[in-house]
Write a structure and sequence with these properties.
The chain has 388 residues and is mainly α. It has helices at residues 18-38, 44-56, 61-71, 75-86, 99-135, 155-174, 190-196, 203-211, 225-251, 280-304, 314-342, 347-361, 372-387; strands spanning 140-145, 148-154, 259-260, 344-345. It has one domain: Fumarase/aspartase (Central domain) (Fumarase C, Chain A, domain 2, Up-down Bundle), CATH 1.20.200.10. A two-stranded antiparallel ribbon has the order 1-2. Strands 3-4 form a two-stranded antiparallel sheet.
């Protein structure tokens, strides 16, 4: 799909594009060939030849996509190409696996690597938000509830609440499991058991170890909790970033002007109004936050339809959704890190707003702000514990 309708997608290059998917699929096949050696079902020479063939394999993603229609997935035509390139080691390619094993494991690899990238950007965003919370710990601002002026708060507490959301999102990501998938044709692992006998039981742990993934013991062809957990954690991250973006968009309106995105040459312009400086990063992060929940929900819909021993369409429905969600979250994380680092805070505008609120409400909104300072300190401490 063209990036023209996905502004900022270049920030997620290599996360889930065709080249990344192909590389992950081939990585899985090579790892499996080495597992077969340990199980006594292939030789070292055969595994080395498969690895060499995979490294030199030239695949046209567009042609592979066309070929994928005949089997319903891209693994089948890719395996055919890899077997042909492996020559006399062809029997060591994909032996004992099924296409779902390969594609599920490849997508888990992509998800794990995407989470690493997202986690890095969340750390940057969190550090910037912690800095804002410290710097403005005692700067009083008017709070808003149900869109209307309420009682005093501090900008430090507002930033601390943003930070707390990022902290929670990081905890969700850190709690994820990234399991290898290995079940064979119908989840029984029958072929390798026939070929290797008792040593076949070591295949799944060895497969997981070769790829740096977890071995859950059981195949999960129709138990899609690993996938929905990844989707939920990614969405929790975009939720947290979306709150930051939405608040910045509100507080950055010219009639409020308490914050402003950092200026970057060439960013935020209008095609017809040269005087404008649009808060583009906030707009795009908010757009991501509005899209992600629907994608996560689609993963749950697919999980609920994963019937029999191998799903008939529900599994297929996951792939583009998960790929898009990975790209969306990584892109939003990168944009939010830049947004938080460059955010400009106007305390004079906050003071003016306090005066206006005080006059309008006939009360002293500069009064007591409760435990705002302690909450700021608590949020920062939680972040420092979670950041690692």
């Amino acid at each position: 799909m063209s990036g023209l309708l996905r502004p900022g997608a270049h920030r997620a290059a290599g996360v889930s594009d065709d080249a990344a998917v192909l590389a992950a699929l081939l990585r899985v096949e090579v790892a499996w060939a080495r597992v077969l050696v340990a199980a006594g079902a292939a030789t070292d020479a055969e595994a080395a030849q498969v690895a060499e063939a995979a490294a030199g394999l030239e695949v046209d993603p567009a042609a592979l996509a066309v070929a994928a229609e005949a089997a319903g997935n891209p693994v089948v035509p890719l395996v055919a190409l890899l077997r042909a390139a492996s020559r006399d080691a062809a029997d060591a390619v994909h032996r004992g696996l099924t296409s779902q094993d390969v594609l599920d494991t490849a997508l888990v690899l992509l998800a794990r690597d995407a989470v690493v990238r997202l986690r890095f950007d969340l750390a940057s965003a969190g550090d910037a938000l912690a800095g804002l919370a410290r710097a403005h710990r005692d700067d009083v601002a008017v709070a808003r509830t149900l869109t209307q002026w309420a009682v005093p708060t501090t900008f430090g507490l507002r930033a601390a609440q943003w930070l707390a959301g990022v902290t929670d999102a990081v905890a969700r990501l850190d709690g994820l499991a990234f399991p290898v998938q290995y079940g064979g044709a119908a989840g029984t692992r029958a072929l390798l058991a026939e070929l290797a006998g008792p040593s076949a039981t070591a295949a799944a742990p060895a497969f997981a170890a070769a790829l740096g993934l977890a071995d859950t013991g059981l195949p999960w062809h129709t138990r899609r909790g690993a996938v929905t957990a990844i989707g939920d954690a990614l969405t929790a991250a975009t939720d947290a970033l979306g709150v930051v973006a939405a608040d910045v968009l509100l507080l950055g309106r010219p009639e409020i002007a308490e914050v402003r995105e950092g200026a970057v040459a060439g960013r935020g312009g209008s095609s017809t109004m040269p005087h404008k400086q649009n808060p583009v990063l906030s707009v795009l992060v908010r757009a991501a936050a509005l899209q992600a929940p629907g994608l996560a929900a689609q993963l749950h819909v697919a999980a609920a339809g994963a019937v029999d021993e191998r799903p008939d369409g529900a599994w297929h429905a996951e792939w583009p959704v998960l790929a898009r969600l990975l790209e969306l979250a990584v892109t939003a994380g990168s944009q939010a890190a830049e947004l938080a680092a460059g955010l400009q805070v106007d305390t004079a505008a906050m003071a003016a707003r306090l005066d206006a609120a005080s006059a309008a409400a006939a009360l002293d909104v500069r009064g007591h702000v409760g435990e705002a300072g302690r909450f700021v300190d608590l949020a920062i401490a939680r972040w420092e514990d979670a950041r690692g």
